[in-house]
Amino acid sequence: MTGKDLILTKVTKRFGGLVAVDDLSFHVKEGQIYGLIGPNGAGKTTVFNCITGIHPCEEGSISWGGEEIRHLPTHKIVRMGIVRTFQTIRLFSQMSVAENVMSGRHIKSSQKLWHGVFHTPASKRDETENWQVVFDLLDFFGLREFATHPVGSLAYGIQRKVEIARAMAVNPDLLILDEPAAGLNDNETLALIETIYRIREQGITILLIEHDMDLVMEVTEYLTVINFGSKIAEGTPSEIQANPAVIEAYLGSDDDDF
Amino acid sequence: MIKKLQQLGYPLFFVVMIMLPAMLDSRWLAVATTFVIFTIVALSQDIILGKAGMFNMGQALFFGLGAYTTAVLNSVFGWPLLATLPLAIIIPALFGIILAGPIIHLRGDYLLVVTIGFNIVFVQAVQNNLFGITGGPNGIFGLEMLEVPGLASFQEFTPYYAALGALLVTFFVLHNLETSKIGRALHYLREDNLAAGSIGINTRIYKIFAFSLGAGIAGMAGTFYANQYSAVSPEAFDFLQSVLFFSIVIVGGSSVPGILLGVFVMFVLPEIFRELATWRYFIFGFAMIFTMILRPRGIWPAKFGRIPKAFTDKGR
User: Fold this and answer.
1) Nearest alpha carbon to residue A180 among A208, A218, A141, A151
2) What is the pLDDT of residues B19-49, one digit of tens each?
3) Do B198 and A84 touch (CB under 8 A)?
4) Which terminus has fewer CB within 10 Å in chain B: N or C?
5) Where are chain A's structural domains?
């Protein structure tokens, strides 16, 4: 195995008696844009929660760049270069856009706890350097004009951008996007597709869940389709579009009237 | 304009506070001294409650721990008052870590109940003359007071100015906190704990840190409280005191001006209306209710979006 690949092997997650993810395996290669799709309630977000340690899975293995990350807490997984966004935007809504993006710099900053009590020249320099990174990112995402606005008062599409910018501030190797186009209009979705390409150009692997099939078929290179927590198909977008099992899962088959 | 006012605000505040004793008689000087000390405690409570968003209803414990550390070291071991200050900060800070460690994962109301419990245990312990050194229900009397050598006539004002110095140190620490990643991390985890974890913040460590820092600053205030009365007694640190500090932060809002206003409304105003006897609490209760209805985030809530000037000016 080479590079920073994310490999899920036989991952199973149960909530009480309900099997939310069942024996799921897939392999995201470094530099790929990988899609995870499936009908509502198929367990896609649960898979993301397993990978990011929010709801650790009980069985199977999740390997990242050759290391097992199944049992690590969320904040340690972030330190290994895996960052996610949320389906329902989770920003720090009272705080400004710049401060929200700055939160992504947290683990990159060299400040120690005691710098919260007493600044040193080094910690002040670190502070300025990180603000510089934040403002470069705001320029990258075209958010500079909103820098000091409270993020909660901004339009939904802009909040989405801020959340991606915050994740990018961590300098991730793998960016996990949970329905990034949810709630966006057509223009915003087009802009999002462009943003995803620009992020990939920086060598960042992207794993995304999306309901917008146009977006998925356009941007992803490889897909896994899940239903009721287990994989029903995988392949390139064109293969998936022609797969009868996928069509059945989305549209229902003719003979399920009983 | 507001920025200029803020830049002027701190020097102006200290000039007024330095001049203040000249205009006060001894009763009001005592009120002013306590105002300064309570402001320090309320600011320390603000780190835990306002910034990190943890419902701590036991801040009087840390305040009292600092005061008792000073009193015991001075009365039993004969340390000079100023020499007790480092331990009066360190011991409460350590207790903050020890007490917060096992309970930090508790949410809102649960944490509140546990911290009330801690506070009651503390008061019971000192009332029952723990290790025979806390003086029981009467507390410890006849402590040494801070003195300025060669200025015996100044003695009356020493507690006030000593407390004011401590307030200045507190402002300095808070300023550093607000302009560091540590202070921001507290805001992040208050607003959304899960999101804070998802960008790599070890929220547990930062919550314990908030408790520890808040406890240390409250402990420092305790030393100056012991100095003001040259005594400590258990009832000054009971659960009702914690309620006072809690309400100051809630009513005032999580900002330095908010805390100052909060201490003024909750502590100084009742002193001013002392002639009204218990009626003053009636007014004061209504004031609290109306503040919460009209300004749910406090009279002067925290303001965000303070980005270093070098960045906000560019691109405008």
Assistant:
1) A208
2) 888 888 888 999 999 999 999 999 999 999 9
3) yes
4) N
5) 1-81+172-258, 94-166
Provide the 3-class DSSP secondary structure of residue A68: strand
Option in A79, A119, A135 nearest B311 (CB): A135
Interface contact B176-A119, CB threshold 8 A: yes
Nearest CA in chain A to B204: A75
Whose tokens are 């505040």? That residue is: B13
In this complex, is the C-beta atom of B197 within 8 Å of any C-beta atom belonging to chain A?
yes
Q: For residue B268, give the DSSP letter.
A: I
The residue whose two tokens read 């490999």 is A7
Q: Chain B partners of A116 at a C-beta cutoff of 8 Å?
A: 176-177, 180-183, 209, 213
Q: What digits encode the pLDDT tens for the residues A53-72?
A: 999 888 889 999 888 998 89
Give me the DSSP letters along A115-150. Answer: GGTS--HHHHHHHHHHHHHHHHHHHHTT-GGGTTSB
Check whether domain A1-81+172-258 has CATH 2.40.50.100, yes or no:
no
Q: Are B195 and A130 within 8 A, CB to CB?
A: no
Reported ipTM: 0.87
Residue of B nearest to A135 (CA): B311
What are the distances in angstroms from CA B175 to CA A14, A102, A124, A248, B246?
47, 18, 13, 60, 21
A123 in contact with chain B, both atoms CB, cutoff 8 A: yes
Q: Which ranges in chain B belong to alpha helices (H)?
A: 2-19, 26-45, 59-75, 85-103, 108-127, 158-178, 181-191, 193-198, 203-229, 239-252, 256-263, 269-272, 279-294, 309-313
Winning range, highest mean pLDDT, from A125-134, B4-13, B73-82, B210-219: B210-219
Rounded Cα gap, residues A72 and A82, in angstroms: 12
Query: Is B200 in contact with A115 (Cβ distance < 8 A)?
Result: no
b/e burial code for range B60-82 (CB count within 10 A of at least 16 → b): bbbbbbbbbbbbbbbbeeebebe
- Whether B315 shows a pLDDT value over 50: the answer reads no
Instruction: Please state the pTM of the whole predicted model.
Output: 0.90
pLDDT tens profile B256-273: 999 999 999 888 888 888
Chain B residue numbers with beta carbons less than 8 Å from the beta carbon of A93 are: 191
The shortest C-alpha distance from B19 to chain A (Å) reads 29
Eight-class DSSP state of B264: I
Q: A125 CB near a chain B CB, below 8 Å?
A: no
CA distance A124 to chain B (A): 8
Structural contact between residues B140 and B231, judged by C-beta atoms closer than 8 angstroms: yes
